[in-house]
Amino acid sequence: MALPFLPGNTFERKIGKDKYHLTHQFDKYNGVGMLTGNKLGVGGVPLAGEDLRPQNSVYPRGEGPDRPAWLAFDKQVLCFDAYFQESITERREEQYRIRKCRVYFYPEDDTVQVVEQRQNNVGFPQGTILKRHRVPLPTPNDDRFFTYDQFNVGAEVSLYGRVYKLIDCDPFTRNFLTKLGVRVPPGFAAPEDPFLKHRHTSDGTQNPLRPYERIDSLKQFINHDTHVLRFWGVWDDSESLYGDVRNFVVHYFLADDTMEVREILPPNSGRDAPPIYLSRSRLPKDFNGLRLPGENAQRTVLNVFGQLNKQRWILDNLKTGAVDQKYYSDQDLAIGQLINVYERKVLLTDCDEFTRNYYRSKYGVQDFTPINYSKENDYKALRQSYPYTGFGSEEDSLNSTKKLLPEPVKKDFNKFMGFDRQGLESNVLRFMAKVITKDPIQAARRFVISYYLADDTINIHEPPVRNSGIGGGKFLERQKVKKPNQPRYPLEVSEYFNGTDFYVGARVIINGFDFYIYDADEYAYKLMEKECYSFSVANQKLILEKLRQYLTNNTDAVAQFEQHDPQRKGYFGYETFYGLMKNLVGNVLVDHEIITIARYYAQKSLKEHDIYSIVAVAQEHLRKNNYEHLLPLKENFIKRDRNRNGRLSTEDVRNAVRSVHVPLPDYLLDTLLTRMTQEDGCIDYNDILGALNWRELPISKPTPTDADEQDNFASTGHSDDPKMADKTIHERKRFNVEYSIMLQDLGINTSHPLSTLGTSNN
């Protein structure tokens, strides 16, 4: 009988306790939140009948921050080699089987997977035995799951009633368990399966009467994949009605010994143009007609039982009815060989470089002389041309007659890009010319002929001369000019003047005017000497070869040179050299060739234009125009200077100067920028500002000599300068020609020492 619930009759059971919290069912294991299941009661008191052992693998903590199991063990798998024994009933040959498999344990979520190794002809399905999931322990602990500590080499694991014996593991698994403090025994072999042993013994004794014919072409395919022998051949079908000689390309594929034939059809041949004349296949040597399907097969199949629903086939051991067909191989192909392409005799005439190297290395063939096969009665129809209609250009009109759909004329784009204006390089040849006529007024006129290398156009300008009675200006608009004595309505494109037609001493007839070219500007001389392989009159090697043939045995020539040099200096002035060469080789060399030799062996006495004289001339132009607004120019420089290093390219400096309208001529600005450009192609624009500041940084006014030099570089390359020819001739008069070095290069000995002016240009 219980005591009444009155003071003094009850006892406090919580005396000495310090935990009074309620229990919770959600907790974290290995950093993953989950429903934990069994927990302690209120105040941490175990409840009756509860198992508080952990449900997941518990790993010892290491160094570093805690990470959840799915992150710490990501892509980590413990792999064990295992086997299980399966009982076999109602079979005399076997009582049990040993089935080998692999057990995978995933530490990230304690899941297990079992996969059986596949074998041939085992008679039962193989592969995945147990899909990946958490596997409960055998009864009576089926409320818990397998963890990593239950897997080790030598252990037996019961998964759903099937016992797996773990016999070995991989190095990663062994290292993983060792780090957790688990001793891993060495692996051992699985017991031998008696039934597999019996199968191997019986299979070894069952040899067929005739071994199966195994055709293995894998090695040939791997070694020679994408290797193709290419031959060119012809088929002479001219004996048949409307037949002719047809050209082919024969491909032999080394990967599978197949051949392919493609026909080469010329334009307007009148034949259809299929992509392939003979599709890729093995080509028989002897063609006796097409065989029925299955008649020419690799194996002969015999029908043992012929009933409708009960058919059985076996291979014919004796190969009864097999067709002995021979096919072309690489040994049968060679230049000059005649191959049979289904009764079409194709003659191999040539091959490519890969085919030559193949036969040279494998068969030692050295003769690959191609065969030029042609018929005597071959006739090639000529395209009929039609005369120029007079509408549009000749090229456009004649090009419209070549195709059904007219197309625009294709211009030489590479030539245009190579010789178009690039910075200071204009690629324009300017020559001074005069008209050959008996009229004294017309004979006194001077013209500048400009030839543009980019598109072979010509422009003629007449410099104005004061009090001449002729206004001057543009004489001929820039255009391509025909050569004289050509029909007005030609059948082909007319011949136009090109760069080789213009040189000093040449006579050109342009629109009825007979021009004589008597000089050129300095830029034209330099550009033609630079492109000497295109301009033979500026090629000093070809000119010296002409002189060598003419002066080698001419003793009077050496005497005349020494006669004009009484002091034996080895050089004399340009005028003396020019007059002497005109007398000696005037009928061999043109004037331009004589000038080229004189320039090649010239020693100039004038120095190049220095930067101070150029700046002085530029400041003089600014002073005359009273230009002092350099602040906008400086702001423009700073705006273009993205790197903020005080340096700009030559083109940017030129554009900046032009944008603020600095009153400097183009030739003077180009000369100034050229002299101030550094090796990297950039200019310090602070130097430009200082050079143009004539108010604070003045440079003395150029002397008359400097003014002459100013005229020299100012007039170079400008067709509106009336004194252009006089200045180029004046420039040549100021240097001497070292004829002694020229004679030495020609192999002619002289009686005086070499010139002391310095080393020549060669």
UniProtKB/TrEMBL annotation:
GO terms for biological process: regulation of neuron projection development. One of its GO terms (cellular component) is microtubule. This is EF-hand domain-containing family member C2. The keyword Zinc-finger does not apply. Residues 628-663 form the EF-hand domain. Microtubule inner protein (MIP) part of the dynein-decorated doublet microtubules (DMTs) in cilia axoneme, which is required for motile cilia beating. GO terms for molecular function: calcium ion binding. Residues 74-181, 225-363, 425-532 form the DM10 domain. Residues 700-725 are annotated as: Disordered. It is found in: Cytoplasm, Cytoskeleton, Flagellum axoneme. InterPro entries: DM10_dom, EF-hand-dom_pair, EF_Hand_1_Ca_BS, EF_hand_dom, EFHC1/EFHC2/EFHB. Keywords: Calcium, Cell projection, Cilium, Cytoplasm, Cytoskeleton, Flagellum, Repeat. Pfam families: DM10_dom (PF06565).
